[in-house]
Amino acid sequence: MEHNLTSTEYLQAVREIKSAILESRYQAARLVNREILSLYYAIGKYISFHSRSSSWGSNAIAVVSDMLQQELPGLRGFSQTNIKRMRLFYEAWAPLFENRPLATDDSCSTSISTQVSKTSVVIRPLLTDELQPAELDAFLSVGFTNHYEILAHSKGADERLFYILHCAAGFWSVEKLKYYLKDNLYQKEGRMPNNFHLTITDSELRRKALRSFKDDYLLSFVNIEDPDDIDERVIEQEIVHNIKSFIMALGRDFSFIGNQYRIIVSDKEYFIDLLFFNRRLQALIAIELKTGEFKPEYVGKLNFYLSALDEYVKLPHENPSIGIVLCKDKDVRTVEFAFRDLHKPMGVATYHTSINLPPQYQGILPEPDDLIKLM
Questions:
Q1: Which of 298, 315, 326, 371 is deepest in the core (most CB within 10 A)?
Q2: How far from chain centre, in Å, is Cα 339?
Q3: Sign of dihedral through CA atoms 321, 322, 327, 331?
Q4: pLDDT exceeds cutoff 80 at 374
Q5: Three-state DSSP state, 324
Q6: How many CB atoms lie within 10 A of CB 80?
Q7: Are 183 and 153 in contact (CB under 8 A)?
Q8: Residue 16 confidence (pLDDT)
Q9: Phi, psi at residue 235, to the nearest 5°?
């Protein structure tokens, strides 16, 4: 017996099919972008190998570009300028992607890699422990033009990754990226005020620590009308009840140890608001939660907690504990003065709840025109 669908059922079917089509197109676009970046990285390595040696003359790249156009009429993206950009792309990121031996399953293409001989270009996958999975995924989802703009107008891996993550999360167009590069967004927003440069002597550990913490956290699961007028313990309980969401906000390398974590010094009890362990840093992370603006006296208390953790809780193979004051607002200059002459690694970050959305989180979803172009 034939069944006549209602208009609601038709609409539901259209929504489901439309969602599947858009998701498929989005995933296809991501895969295509990965292959393009892989190709450009491989060519960049090959060009770098030959052009930086004495085997090629100064005009070699222009000759190669012209001959490619003759071999493949209508080929786009391989002008002399763009080939030089591929070389820059490779040379900028080679230290990150090249410094590890090839794995046995390198035939599975999950990221960028190349093996270049004197006569050929062979594309191979390369995994790196230098980037977290989310960072690597963002790196591979950003278009080559955006990558070039970031390389051309920013310095250092940390700053570059900052813009890459924002491009991936916000679907930034080239023009939007140029605006934020010119506005120097990284210096304004990118780094949590900290004293890591003075307290963490190991440069590799310091670099990882800088990338492990954000300047501001969105705690969208905290639904409290006015967090400024309530006790800190209420927000703490909201975090504990939604600990999975909080860890997702912090980063996947964090493991929750406990709240109101008790330590005993000279027969007196002290309680740390939130205690975590970071696998990448191999360090305990103590978080002091404050509902108002940062005050200098907070770091004295946190410094005491870190000393106690290092003395009584830290295991011998672990790195020194790190402390974070998580508050509603902060004055950077006040934080800098508070950190002077302290020898424990600390930082001060802010948080916002679902009631109070900060400007940097506005516009995270792409504009309709950008979404249409993406699809």
A1: 326
A2: 25
A3: positive
A4: no
A5: strand
A6: 15
A7: no
A8: 84
A9: -65, -40
Q: Are 276 and 326 in contact (CB under 8 A)?
A: no
Can you tell me the mean pLDDT for 5-17? 79
Token pair belonging to 188: 């304004």
Alpha helices in the chain (DSSP H): 7-51, 60-71, 80-97, 133-141, 144-153, 157-170, 174-182, 185-189, 196-199, 203-212, 232-241, 243-250, 297-312, 332-339, 368-374
Quote the tokens at residue 267: 């027969």
pLDDT one-digit tens code per residue, 169-197: 888 999 999 988 988 888 766 578 899 98
Sign of CA dihedral 29, 35, 38, 39: negative
The CA distance from 225 to 268, in Å, is: 36
Using the predicted structure, report yes or no on whether residue 159 has a pLDDT greater than 70: yes
Q: Phi, psi (5° rounding) for residue 278?
A: -105, 120
Asked if residues 112 and 38 have their Cβ atoms less than 8 Å apart, the reply is: yes
pLDDT tens per residue, range 137-154 = 889 889 999 999 999 998
Number of other CB atoms surrounding residue 90 within 10 Å: 24
When pLDDT is averaged across residues 90-106 and rounded to a whole number, the result is: 66
Contact partners, residue 290, CB within 8 Å, separation at least 6: 232, 298, 325, 326, 327, 328
Q: How confident is the model at residue 116 (pLDDT cuts 50, 70, 90)?
A: very low
Residue 58: count other Cβ atoms within 10 Å of its Cβ.
Answer: 7
Q: Which two tokens stand for residue 337?
A: 């003065």
Q: State which H helix or E strand residue 353 sits in.
A: strand 346-353
Name the band, by pLDDT with cuts 50, 70 and 90, for residue 232: confident
Residue 341 φ/ψ region, left for φ over 0, alpha for ψ in the -120 to 50 degree band, beta for the rest = left
Q: Which residue has the higher pLDDT, 347 or 34?
A: 347
Q: Distance (Å, rounded) from C-alpha 19 to C-alpha 31?
A: 18
335: nearest Cα among 321, 348, 350, 322 = 348
In a 3-state reduction of DSSP, which class is residue 204? helix
**What's the pLDDT score for residue 375?**
45
